[in-house]
Fold this protein.
Amino acid sequence: MQKKTTCPYCGVGCGLDVGLGEGISTPLVMADKSHPANFGRICSKGSALSETVDKERAPKRLTHPMVDGQVISWDGATAEIAKRLQQTIDKYGPDSVAFYLSGQLLTEDYYVANKLAKGFLGTSNVDTNSRLCMSSAVAAYKRAFGSDTVPCCYEDLELADLIVLIGSNTAWTHPVLYQRIVQAKESNPNMKVILIDPRRTVTADIADLHLAITPSSDNFLFQGLLNYLMQSGRLDEAFIAESTENFERVADSVKYADMGAVSKSCGVEKSDLERFFSLFANTKKTISFYSQGINQSSSGTDKCNSIINCHLATGKIGYEGAGPFSITGQPNAMGGREVGGLSNMLAAHMDFDDASIDRVKRFWRAPTMAETPGLKAVDLFQAIHDDKVKLVWIMATNPAVSLPDSESVVAALKRCETVIVSDITDNDTTEFADILLPAEGWSEKDGTVTNSERRISRQRGFVKADGVAKPDWWALTQVAEKLGFGEHFNYKLAADIFREHARLSSFENDGTRDFDLSGLANVSDDDYERLSPIQWPVNSSNPLGSQRMFTDRKFFTQSGKARFVASKASLADAVKVISENSLVLNTGRLRDQWHTMTRTGSAPKLTSHDDVAFIELNPSDAMKFGLKHHAIARVFNALGEVSLQVKIDDSIDSGQAFMPIHWNRKYAKASTANTLVRPNVDPISGQPEFKASNVSVLPLMHRYWVRMVSKRPFNSLEKYDFWSLNQFEGGWVALLGFDETTDWRAELASDAGSYSETSKNIEVLEYRNSLKDRYVAATYAGSNIETFLFQGGCASDLPSRAWMTESFMSSSALDTAMLVRGESDGRDELVCSCFGITHKRIRSAIDEGAKSSVDLAQTCGAGSKCGSCKPELNHYFSKSK
Ligand code: SF4
């Protein structure tokens, strides 16, 4: 059986072909050659999807509803939810209940949750984790265009002559778009790419110019660009006059931003600024491609508008290869925006104005409409903490890890009267659930998602859900029915919801609203099942969808003109308060992980590239704080403390640090990035500042450090002072730090007793080298190795995970005595996840004559499948490694 579906990870929204054979439990996942988002491309995360649905590896799957820790029927669980919702609303009012949704939900789930809350419960406290990823981009589009409209499409990246990547490590965060840009650049020698990012990420590989600006100085940069465009006479006067408003005011506000002032504020040489400004001014087909580096800021909305201002000033919008292009992080952040998943939007891109409230109320025949915007994510969890919101229903997201100041979020969840969680697996947030609902996940559920270029695609189920798991929309309809609203939620299929959603988008629209699916409002069940990817709006003027917006240079403001928006450039507080002993911490995503690792953490292929949460430091800072490469550091500020492996890299400037967002509390004792991030939000969008927290760093000192490999999951990790855990093809690997001397022989023998029927089968071999402070042990059951550990006095001296697991898998070659003598260089690093190719293997291929990444692909296979590691492979040939 072959099915077409969509990847559940990033906002690129790649199409996938999934194959399932008779009696084969693990699906074969391949890129869909016909999907317009990827045309046969895929990244490491997408290509490892089959591992994440492997039942043996996945974290504990939720299979049955539970109320207060007891398994219960769906009928019982949804009756209990309805009862608690009603009681809470009766006692405290509608705003005492809230929904916290997710860009992982399908549009149909989102639609039903929003309708129930805003139309029938009377609360607009419906927000989503997409608030954390792109709400500033939404707010800026609305200020400029009068609507949340992404003007561009992916093809524009191939048609542009200049791509400005701003605050985006595209190679890792949106790998397939990066691959499309690389290919376009190869085909068009005139294409230029400029990267604007405080860090020199792997994306810099394709950049003709990298502006390593001071963190948070983007606003100065784009105000400087606008001033340059004015001073050099490069404005599109006709476009400004006919299609925009408010130019004069904004022009006045940026006159201060001359080359000298911008160079100083941004920390960039004037000659580099001049080159960027001149390229922007002189290249008609220019795309500004921006993502979390811009949005996740306490002034993110202003930053987005400063970028849009430059496009409006030069008329670079509404034609091929041009426009300000916000790329979303999540697979269905756009679908959430469409239905009103953000608490300040009503539904179908309508706001909380009187006319829209009345329109939506009539369409839904809603008895109790919410009439004002609700709480945004950070404020919502603060309100839970302050006992103002008494009941929260969380779907498909892990706020205990993903929200800033995560310890406060945990405290809020602990004290909330009723926490309902719908999810597919056990995670940090499900621990606090009074009512737990097993949702259908990717591979099981059916519906639609919208990617970053407004393209709606089907996500199709192809395996039966575990236990009695159900779609989220279905659970919501059961609750609605028990609250007495059954006739309004009488959906039998996801297609029923989609049709209603499409009808609402066109209801009394008449071209006044950008989001219009009237052309799909009567789609049959069969056509919905077969629906091909299509970009909205889909209506009588554009029955086959719409590639680009604003081609007629008309916008959705009252005047029909786009608006210039003035903003005040100021460096974030965190950047200002750098002291001798603190660093500005930037957080972000890695190549092979997704969100809080609840899915990707179970794929061995994806855990080997970066196995332990880390902090990246400039060599001078590492030396200043006494930190060695691969040692463990304490990273702390007033909010809390985490422990991270040190990576020393000169791609980050002195005074700055970077750490990944992904690690949850199931994979490490204390490596959650948001422990350190203040809940400091953009005043317009409510999006938190994730990119500039002040932190201090010191070595984490423990007497013993151990890397341990085991066939089975580890027991009792909590007793260690430091632990970090991940999976590999043959079992589990842990890094441990502690002070008390451990009798490993006794410990391993006792552990073996828990799985071996006869302990006489178990043999523990151990070797000690006191001079070198090393100890090695291995446990065998018969001739099979069960565990293998290496203990030393410093984490940086332990053999690498790659070497330990490889040795474990080929245990006949395991010469522990050699290790103790210290004759083995056990340090190696994985580069290509698809084929498990390590740094050493690549080095030896180069020694044998490989001269390019193409040669590497041919000789050892590295980079020849998904291509996500190609930027790293290119590094071998662009600098010595
Ligand atoms: Fe999935 Fe990778 Fe495509 Fe993103 S780029 S949608 S993670 S396959």
